[in-house]
Design brief:
CATH architecture of the largest domain: 3-Layer(aba) Sandwich
Structural class: alpha/beta
Helix content: 25-40%
Distance between the termini: 29 Å
Strand order of the largest sheet: 3-2-1-4-5-6-7
Radius of gyration: 21 Å
Strand content: 5-15%
Number of domains: 2
CATH superfamily of the largest domain: Glycogen Phosphorylase B
Shape: globular
CATH class of the largest domain: Alpha Beta
């Protein structure tokens, strides 16, 4: 299946205007980077290829990744920009002032993610801070980017006082360059064993326990479940360490090589070697609001390399995977169904079927295709008058001073 709102490649779209665009992320950009940083990098490259002047502003310690792209800075010159693109949670208050175009990247359902976390005082403060950006977005955004139809509807509800503001479906994509065919080695995985790769972090809304329990059901089968345990780029410590993984494995009667920690963060440009070693990419989640709004970004890497997917029901990517035959979509928290799907998908016939299906849909998911509607919308701005900033700032301040756990409720 293809994304709902596809564009055309930049080379086929004539440009008669140039916009100076500042793309902003609060994550670290560089040869190794996580989801929000790599999305900012790819969106900035699309804008650059459309003929605009682009600068990518990122967190301290950032550097230029491999390949063609805009300059990367850590201290942006806000007065230079005609337009700003960034997630509302990472934009400073000054981004909502002035007359520059403001394109909000709403693809990360941060409020729903925070709601799924243990409600410590720090998490409650983060929820209030994130929720306080919504009145500012509702008053000042000129366009909003979303990933999948559920997110589009969520943002339209937040913008119902300004229904003319475009909410554009710009999902995550895959590189325009073809993936390589070379397989990398994973320390701790025996030769000839199948690899089920948990691709991404271990967060409270995700369900690693069901995957481990399913692996235990497979007994002595030559299958290694590989879990990344390295610190996120820009972080000193891992949120889920190798010791945490081995302790979780022991609860299910598992030990290496049935479960193997991946204690390095793969470079963005070379991650295809690791993906090619995997028989499956697995991303499972708990049921809830985060799952409904989710777009499993790392699962798209399976489309790029032709690696079959094992996903939980719920979210945009699971729907496309089910319709496109990209692997298996299982009910949430169903250990037996997950074990059966793992066993089936590692068979030669299912591997061949899934890899053909992934190849059939690959071209429609290139970044140059899925990101083009973002570039196109710049020519139509402003589409709706802005609201006054002062009432929005007052509403934001009232959220910040709330002390109850319900503040920031993403409903």
């Amino acid at each position: 299946m293809a994304p709902v709102n596809t564009g055309t490649p930049a080379r086929d779209v004539p440009r008669s205007f140039v916009v100076r665009v500042l793309v902003v992320t609060d994550d670290r950009v560089g040869p190794t980077m996580a989801g929000s940083a790599l999305r900012a990098w790819e969106l900035s490259r699309i804008l650059l290829d459309n003929g605009h002047d682009v600068v990518l502003a990122a967190a301290a310690g950032s550097s230029h990744p491999a390949g063609h792209g805009p300059p990367v800075v850590t201290r942006p010159k806000w007065g230079w920009a005609d337009a700003v693109v960034g997630a509302p949670w990472s934009l400073p208050p000054r981004a909502f002032t002035g007359d520059r175009f403001l394109v909000i990247d709403g693809a990360t359902p941060l409020l729903a993610e925070l709601e799924a976390c243990p409600q410590t005082p720090a998490i409650r403060r983060r929820r209030r801070t994130a929720a306080a950006r919504l009145p500012l977005v509702a008053a000042r955004a000129d366009a909003v980017l979303a990933a999948g139809s559920a997110q589009v509807e969520w943002w339209k509800q937040r913008l119902r006082s300004r229904p003319a503001v475009p909410v554009v479906d710009v999902p995550f994509g895959i590189p325009d360059a073809h993936a390589g065919v070379e397989q990398g080695e994973i320390e701790g995985v025996p030769d000839g064993w199948h690899v089920v790769l948990w691709w991404g972090g271990v967060w409270p809304w995700l369900d690693l326990e069901t995957l481990l329990a399913a692996r235990a059901r497979l007994g002595s089968a030559p299958v290694s479940v590989v879990i990344p345990t390295a610190p996120r780029p820009g972080s000193a410590t891992a949120s889920f360490s190798s010791a945490d993984l081995l302790e979780a494995a022991r609860r299910h009667g598992l030990q290496p090589p049935a479960v193997v920690p991946l204690d390095r963060w793969e470079p963005y440009a070379g991650r295809d070697r690791l993906l090619n070693r995997a028989a499956l990419i697995a991303v499972l989640h708990h049921p809830g609001r985060e799952a409904e709004l989710s777009f499993r970004t790392r699962a798209l890497d399976g489309v790029w390399t032709g690696t079959p997917l094992l996903l939980s029901e719920g979210g945009a990517v699971s729907g496309w995977a089910r319709m496109g035959g990209w692997g298996a979509v299982v009910p949430t928290q169903e250990v037996d169904a997950t074990a059966a799907a793992m066993d089936l998908l590692m068979g030669e016939r299912e591997q061949e079927r899934c890899r053909r299906a992934l190849a059939d849909h690959r071209e429609a998911w290139r970044w140059s295709i899925v990101g083009q509607p973002m570039a196109d919308v710049l020519g139509d701005l402003p589409a709706a008058p802005r609201r006054a900033l002062l009432p929005a700032a007052v509403a934001a301040a009232s959220i910040l001073v709330q002390r109850n756990e319900a503040s920031g409720d993403p409903r």
